[in-house]
Design goal:
With 509 residues, this protein is an alpha+beta fold. Helix 9 (317-331) packs across helix 11 (383-392). The mean pLDDT is 95. Bound molecules: FE2/S2 (inorganic) cluster.
Length: 509
């Protein structure tokens, strides 16, 4: 295994090579950069791989520009089984044509005795609706690239035999608590809790799997823009949620931790792991601050160029948010009810002055200028960021604005998962999926009656609300979201294998 930075690695076996999650270009409005700098690696050679695995669509795992330029388009993509085709579509857009569509939790045998299994997680809170882990076996040596996925347990992997290498996330990848408008002492206390919880969760997974070797990966990012520099864990703050690999090794009670720098190579057998590093590990982490400062200088022009592309003053932000969000508010049952109150966006000029306040009124199902009403959440961010989101038609504000940490937030009451789930689902397909997912978690998932038939309310394809999208014609149900059809007498899907629907003739009155 060659470490290629952040969550990325290249796995080489005599039966072929797998490149995982290569990420080099800054993500989320130029706020996140890979740490340590991996841009100097020989990406032409690394990208000449047999298989590509992109775990999910977060931009620190899916780097379109890098994939387009450096990764061999003859590589076969090992595709997780996600409910939507967005990952496949975006990979096709950058030029990949060969796909192995894996089935979640099933082992697939590739040529030459290489075996892979991908476990796909599909709840609205997993990644941008989807996160996954890759298990690989060759010649009795097994590794699990758990990445930043959070399965309930690791039993499906453990039952396939002892795992030799376990690679998993240990550091922060979120905006909490740094962006919250809280007294510094409270922020430090919450940050410390978060940092401890991240380590505890990682240690629990490690203890569950009991692999021979443990590799801390998938973070932390580093922040090279002056505005975000304070988020780097170089100031000795106990409330910083972005500890690096050397901190992991200090905290980790086990002695089988292995750190990979970009360019480190770990050679794994059933009973050994030998690692060669491109530079002395201890010296590298001791000089972290100077590494970051030099990296910042190299990236200054990149950040400036990105910043110059955000402003689109011709965009009417209120009209744009209304057009994108109001139809979704109208369709939203679970998410809107879960948010339960208005959410305000205070938009500032680059100097920090609020120039416009826009309210997303979840109960009133409306987007309008804010008066002085009480709100559940308040976000403050530069207007030009929202202009850019509207300009590019971004359907996931978590995987763009919120992960950028280029905002501040205040809230009344507890954390509300639904707020972020909603702003991750700013397209009809995603919203319907998330709504259906929450609905299906209810023990008594609802049925509806239409055209003389009683059937499940949520489409068996991607969970559209069939009270809105369903049409019954004789014994056939059509869901208009993607045009799939079902035979209501048998429940059989006429468009695809599987996807049966629960249906029966409606009771006579
Ligand atoms: S959600 Fe795709 S056809 Fe219904």
């Amino acid at each position: 295994m060659t470490g290629t930075g952040h969550a990325s690695m290249r796995i080489d076996t005599p039966a072929g090579s797998i490149l995982c999650d290569p990420w080099v270009n800054p993500a989320y409005f130029a706020s996140w950069f890979p740490f340590p700098d991996n841009s100097q690696l020989d990406w032409e050679a690394l990208g000449d791989c047999d298989y590509l695995y992109v775990s999910h669509l977060h931009r620190d795992h899916f780097d379109a520009e890098h994939l387009k330029r450096f990764v061999n388009k003859r590589a076969t993509v090992l595709l997780p089984e996600y409910p939507t085709s967005q990952l496949e579509d975006e990979l096709r857009d950058v030029g990949f044509t060969r796909f192995l569509k894996t089935l979640s939790d099933e082992v697939h045998e590739l040529d030459g005795g290489l075996k892979v299994m991908i476990q796909a997680l599909v709840s609205p809170t997993d990644g941008p609706i989807g996160d996954s882990s890759l298990w690989v076996e060759y010649d009795g040596v097994r590794l699990l690239n758990q990445n930043d996925a959070r399965p309930a347990d690791l039993s499906r992997f453990a039952e396939l035999g002892h795992v030799h290498a376990h690679l998993l996330q240990f550091s922060g990848a979120i905006w909490y608590p740094m962006v919250y408008e809280l007294p510094e002492a409270a922020k430090t206390a919450f940050g410390k809790q978060k940092r401890d919880r991240q380590f505890d969760r990682t240690f629990r997974y490690i203890d569950d799997l009991k692999a021979s070797w443990v590799f801390p990966i998938a973070g932390p990012p580093c922040f090279l823009d002056e505005e975000l520099w304070r988020f780097n864990d170089i100031f000795g703050e106990e409330g910083n949620i972005f500890p690096d690999q050397s901190e992991f090794v200090k905290e980790y009670p086990g002695s089988n931790g292995v750190v990979l720098l970009p360019g480190s190579v770990a050679t794994l057998t059933a009973d050994s792991c030998e690692t060669a590093h491109p530079t002395d590990l201890e010296a590298f982490f001791a000089n972290k601050e100077s590494h970051l400062k030099a990296y910042r200088e190299r990236q200054r022009a990149v950040i400036e160029r990105e910043k110059a592309s955000w402003a689109h003053p011709e965009i009417d932000v209120l009209a744009g948010m209304k057009a994108q969000i109001e139809p979704l508010l109208d369709e939203s049952v679970y998410l809107a009810k879960g948010v339960g109150g208005p959410v305000r966006f205070d938009l500032t000029d680059p100097g920090g002055e609020v120039v416009e306040s826009i309210l997303v009124d979840f109960p009133g199902k409306e987007v309008r200028h804010a008066a002085d009403e009480k709100v559940r959440y308040r976000f403050k961010t530069q207007r030009r960021l929202i202009e850019h989101l509207l300009y590019v038609g971004e359907g996931d504000w978590v995987n763009s604005l919120f992960l950028s940490c280029r905002f501040s937030a205040a809230r009344i009451g507890q954390y509300n998962e639904f707020v972020y789930a909603f702003f991750k689902c700013l397209s009809e397909e995603r919203l319907q999926y998330a709504e259906g997912w929450y609905e299906s978690q209810r023990p008594d998932a609802e049925d509806i009656v239409m055209g003389g038939w009683k059937f499940q309310r949520r489409c068996a394809h991607l969970k559209a609300d069939l009270t809105r999208f369903g049409i019954v014609d004789g014994g056939t149900l059509t869901c208009q979201l993607h045009g799939w059809k079902w035979d209501l007498a048998s429940g059989r899907c006429l468009t695809s294998v599987g996807h049966e629907i629960r249906s029966e003739p409606a009771p006579q009155r």
